[in-house]
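pinging the channel bc i need a second pair of eyes. not urgent but kinda urgent?? the chain im working w is below, pasted from the shared doc
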Amino acid sequence: MQLQQKHIDALDKAEHLMLRVNYCPYLDLKDLLAQNTTHARQQFRKLFASYYSLNAGGLTDEFKDKYFQILHGGRVFKSGQPRYKTIIIRLNKFKRRKGDYALPLSFVSKLVAVHDETCPIYDRYVLEFFAERVPGADKPRNVRIDWFLKFIAQIKSDYQSWAKVKAVQAILTRLKTRDPQLAKCDAVRLIDFLVWNAGNHQLLK
């Protein structure tokens, strides 16, 4: 997507509106993931589910158990590339509480992103920021997954390009001064925070 002034303005406002609660849980998740102990994994699961609204998606405990099994011990990458499609299909086998099946595109993006900060997060706020529309549930599964794979690749490419724009660099520099750990985060993750906040505050409307 071509970065326009309205997008830069939204990112700028999003940084000013950013609260510690918007990013500190993520920094805690990084620390917990690195510890790799039973206690740390229990704490990680609780915090991850809360921060990324895993408990609000009508997901079953069976789904969540498989989700965190993949996150902690599954093969999330192959030859350095995220195995988005494989993970989506594996998790799509589990019904939600209301008895239907849903493609967990956003949740899978978060599963991958917690391992690799160059991998962006996909959610409704990202869709709004990019003015993108997801294929309807009436479309074949492969069509919807292929759309997601192209879109997530586009997001990554765009974020990496935007990070080279001087106006965006200035915004990222301000964000990095908030916390030494933020200064270590990849630009893709920092822009994730900004896009989410821009969507949360409806800054493009």
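so The mean pLDDT is 95. and Strands lie at 77-78, 81-82. — does that match what u expected or am i reading it wrong
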